[in-house]
Backbone:
């Protein structure tokens, strides 16, 4: 560090100690009791300390900038000195007679050389990640030559061929052929699941470009250069990807927007035609950028940058000066034709590749669909008593999500984990939880208040019981570690007594009841003060609006120094942003599904039917009858939109002599637990349920899931469907929609779901059903109508058009045998915005 920076540092220290002393003297007495602004002496003191800190930071910042500027100028000077032959050596010192400054092109060349030299590590940004290539990692090789890529050479050669280093000349076509691109594309397409970090060589190239981007920003070279840089990077990226995971690609793609100067909106010059063709290419080609592999927690924005409209520049315009402007380029016809050919070519290859991967998949299907990894539990660093319990439960190999999560969690890192339904996420978080308890217990002597070390939150009571049961299986040989549930529907006092008589280290709770304990039981928060790990199962649901407030309050009461794990089969990007509420900034994102991969299981056949609501009950009956006649050990779950609709369907099918059970929130907890346990153990049973069973419930060997009516969102559809086809088994899912609900198919259009025609409906069954319906209590039907209105009114797309909503509600009303729509309380109608809508009756 130079003398000026030392001086600055000393000065800032002096200043802060002076302020500190001043405050101290004043606060020791003698000074006024109140200070300007009505502050007391402590507030006054804190204010000044803060100001001193800010000042110090500012000085340090300035110092840092000075230091960086100095280093840069040293490099420039050195490079300028070494580039030229002695006779004509360029003088970097303006005072020398033969001084002439570096041209921008020369500067870049010099930087490129400097960067790629051994020992250039000091130029890499710390945030760019590790510099050294681990010996076991294959270096990225050129796809065409199979030689390691010399990036500066490639870059300079390509740029320089036409016009010896004329960076602005874009008249020459790029020098990699259509074939090369196609090969790269097919390579890219054919990769699927490898998830190792991208090669460090490749990373270094990226870092180099990253650095150049920054430097260029300062040097005001800008746009055209970067356009070309990026095209080269694409080459490496494609190639690098060949043995890499598409998710790495996506992150790169996402981050590429930062350096993407290729957005064309207003025409300026023909020279830019190549850039234009690149933009077109971007529609079809994976786009790669710079620095994209460095940050995991940024990867949540991948969709934001998808598509042309999002291809925006993110580098500051200040940095790029006049070069930072949007340009549209006219495209020579020839160029467009080439692109056309290219796109056709790519399309053919894409088809071939997908055909090939389909045939390969059929062969490897068993392997691909297996949820198990190659790793065994006894190979990883967990207690042998846990391994013993796992073996006793029949778990020998880890599932993929367990393998991916365990090591990271054992290191104490926060993690956000996405894995398909039924792939063993529960054990994936329970195993690190047990290790945490073991570690915490061994470190602590006897304490006055027994601490809760692990808190597991989940959305439903049944799920909490299921998790606690699984935890007990894994704790079979661990004496002295206890698990308890805190869920609604049980008596608060009973919970309290249990907690006092039988202290535990692991709590599984639903948010509402836990908050009750925190707020109403003095002393409960004290137990939580020793918390080491917080787990959110079905995290996206827990962070949803319905639970958010409770979650915020709970998190506020927990110690900050803890490890947090969030898991779900679905993690929409909004949730990933909100997850920061719980997770540390530097958390890991573990995605065993993979970007762009199916979130549902390939072995689960999905179909949907569209029919008026009036026919739904008949159709469900028909489907059930068919399934029961075809599948010996059938086990079916029927999901309804509301609890009251569940109750109505249950009553109807029970009266029609079907073997059915019901679970929904209107039932007592005792009843729900009994039915849930019965369904878990049984075969040849139909469970009619609301969404309380949609998430996390592990009912083995469910053969069919029927979803009647609109699922509240895509995620809910996936979770409901996920009750079948668990542990890599086969299953079937049918979604039944009314014609005006069919818009929902847009939300799940990426899933392999097929439209089926309506089955033939037996008129005798219709009569039988109408007959059974008349026997159902009118109050059940009325409640079903109210609940129906409430549910659909809350669906944004439907609730907007109140008149249509009421019409549909009245048709539903007819279909369940009500003569006229039941009246609503005025207040309710007002709240729902239905008061003056024709067809709504208001209670007098
Ligand atoms: N290592 C393993 N070996 C064999 N079976 C396992 C293993 N881990 C979990 N299982 C079984 O896999 C099934 C599904 O597990 P789990 O309920 O944890 O899935 P999940 O991923 O949490 O599902 P959901 O997303 O629906 O909550 C359970 O029956 C469980 O016993």
Residues:
């Amino acid at each position: 560090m130079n003398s000026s920076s030392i001086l600055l540092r000393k000065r800032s220290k002096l200043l802060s100690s002076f302020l500190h002393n001043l405050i101290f003297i004043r606060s020791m007495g003698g000074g006024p009791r109140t200070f300007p602004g009505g502050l007391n002496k402590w507030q006054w003191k804190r204010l000044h300390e803060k100001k001193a800190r800010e000042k110090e930071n500012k000085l340090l910042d300035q110092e840092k900038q000075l230091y960086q500027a100095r280093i840069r100028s040293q490099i420039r000077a050195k490079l300028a000195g070494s580039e030229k032959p002695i006779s004509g050596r360029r003088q970097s010192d303006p005072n020398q007679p033969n001084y002439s400054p570096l041209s921008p092109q020369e500067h870049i060349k010099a930087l490129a050389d400097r960067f790629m030299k051994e020992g250039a590590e000091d130029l890499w940004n710390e945030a760019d990640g590790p510099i050294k290539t681990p010996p076991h990692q294959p270096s990225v090789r050129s796809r065409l030559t199979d030689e390691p890529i010399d990036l500066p050479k490639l870059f300079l050669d390509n740029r320089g061929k036409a016009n010896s280093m004329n960076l602005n000349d874009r008249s020459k076509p790029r020098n990699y052929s259509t074939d090369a691109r196609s090969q790269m594309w097919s390579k890219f397409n054919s990769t699927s699941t490898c998830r190792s970090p991208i090669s460090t060589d490749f990373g270094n190239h990226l870092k180099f470009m990253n650095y150049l981007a920054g430097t260029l920003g300062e040097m005001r070279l800008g746009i055209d250069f970067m356009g070309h840089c990026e095209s080269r990077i694409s080459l490496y990226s494609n190639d690098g990807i060949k043995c890499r995971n598409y998710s790495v690609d996506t992150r790169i793609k996402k981050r590429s927007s930062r350096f993407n100067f290729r957005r064309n909106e207003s025409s300026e010059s023909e020279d830019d035609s190549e850039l234009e063709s690149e933009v077109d290419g971007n529609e079809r080609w994976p786009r790669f950028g710079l620095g994209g592999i460095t940050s995991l927690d940024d990867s949540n924005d991948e969709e934001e940058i998808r598509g042309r409209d999002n291809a925006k520049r993110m580098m500051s315009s200040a940095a790029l000066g006049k070069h930072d402007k949007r340009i549209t380029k006219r495209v020579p016809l020839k160029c467009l034709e080439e692109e056309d050919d290219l796109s056709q070519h790519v399309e053919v290859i894409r088809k071939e590749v997908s055909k090939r991967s389909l045939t390969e998949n059929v062969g490897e299907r068993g392997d691909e669909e297996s949820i198990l990894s190659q790793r065994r539990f006894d190979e990883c660093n967990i207690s042998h008593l846990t391994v013993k319990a796992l073996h006793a439960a029949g778990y020998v190999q880890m599932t993929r999500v367990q393998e991916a999560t365990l090591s990271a969690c054992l290191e104490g890192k926060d993690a956000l984990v996405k894995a398909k339904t039924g792939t063993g996420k529960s054990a994936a978080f329970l195993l690190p939880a047990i290790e945490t308890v073991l570690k915490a217990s061994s470190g602590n002597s006897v304490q006055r208040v027994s601490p809760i070390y692990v808190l597991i939150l989940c959305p439903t009571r049944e799920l909490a019981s299921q998790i606690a049961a699984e935890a007990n299986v894994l704790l079979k040989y661990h004496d002295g570690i206890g698990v308890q549930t805190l869920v609604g529907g049980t008596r608060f006092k009973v919970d309290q007594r249990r907690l006092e008589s039988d202290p535990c280290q692991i709590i599984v709770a639903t948010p509402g009841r836990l908050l009750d304990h925190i707020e109403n039981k003095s002393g409960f928060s004290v137990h939580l003060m020793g918390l080491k790990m917080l787990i959110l199962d079905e995290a996206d649901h827990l962070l949803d609006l319905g639970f958010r407030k409770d979650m915020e309050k709970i998190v506020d009461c927990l110690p900050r120094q803890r490890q947090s794990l969030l898991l779900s089969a679905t993690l929409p990007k909004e949730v990933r942003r909100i997850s920061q509420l719980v997770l540390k900034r530097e958390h890991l994102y573990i995605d065993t599904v993979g970007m762009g991969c199916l979130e549902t299981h390939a072995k689960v056949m999905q179909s949907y039917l569209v029919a008026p609501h009036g026919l739904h009950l008949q159709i469900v009956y028909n489907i059930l009858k068919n399934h029961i006649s075809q599948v010996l050990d059938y086990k079916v779950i029927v999901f309804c939109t509301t609890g009251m609709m569940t109750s109505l369907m249950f009553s109807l099918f029970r009266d029609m002599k079907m073997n059915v059970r019901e679970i929904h929130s209107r039932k007592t907890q005792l009843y729900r637990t009994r039915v849930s346990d019965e369904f878990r153990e049984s075969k040849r049973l139909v469970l009619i349920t609301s969404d309380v069973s949609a998430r996390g419930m592990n009912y083995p060997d469910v053969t069919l899931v029927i979803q009647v009516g609109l699922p509240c969102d895509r995620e809910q559809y996936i979770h409901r469907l996920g009750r079948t086809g668990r542990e890599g088994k086969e299953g079937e899912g049918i979604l039944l929609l009314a014609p005006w609900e069919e818009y929902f198919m847009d939300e799940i259009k990426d899933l392999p779901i097929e439209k089926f025609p309506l089955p033939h409906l037996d008129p005798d069954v219709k009569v039988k059903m109408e007959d059974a319906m008349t026997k159902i209590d009118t109050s059940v039907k009325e409640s079903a109508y109210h609940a129906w209105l409430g549910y659909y009114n809350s669906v944004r797309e439907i609730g907007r058009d109140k008149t249509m909503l009421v019409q549909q509600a009245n048709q539903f009303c007819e279909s369940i045998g009500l003569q006229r729509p039941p009246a609503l309380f005025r207040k309710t109608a007002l709240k729902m915005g239905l008061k003056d809508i024709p067809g709504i009756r208001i209670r007098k």
